[in-house]
């Protein structure tokens, strides 16, 4: 199974979060961790971001 990977600008656009918020929430274990693509290159799995967004949606009821 191959999933799409997203660089930080795409993650910021999808989530509406700033760079600093993303990294702060990662530090607090409130946001998915990226995968390393190289020594200084990371990206997030789109599936991880989508799951995180869905988990944050208010439940109807």
From TrEMBL:
Pfam families given in the database record: Phage_AlpA
InterPro entries hit by this protein: AlpA (IPR010260), DNA-bd_dom_put_sf (IPR009061), Prophage_regulatory_activator (IPR052931)
PANTHER family linked: DNA-BINDING TRANSCRIPTIONAL ACTIVATOR ALPA
Protein name stated in the entry: Transcriptional regulator, AlpA family
């Amino acid at each position: 199974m191959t999933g799409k990977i997203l660089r930080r600008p795409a993650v910021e656009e999808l989530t509406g979060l700033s760079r600093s918020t993303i990294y702060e929430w990662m530090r607090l274990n409130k946001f998915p961790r990226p995968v390393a693509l190289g020594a200084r290159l990371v990206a997030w799995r789109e599936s991880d971001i989508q799951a995180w967004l869905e988990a944050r949606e208010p439940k109807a009821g």
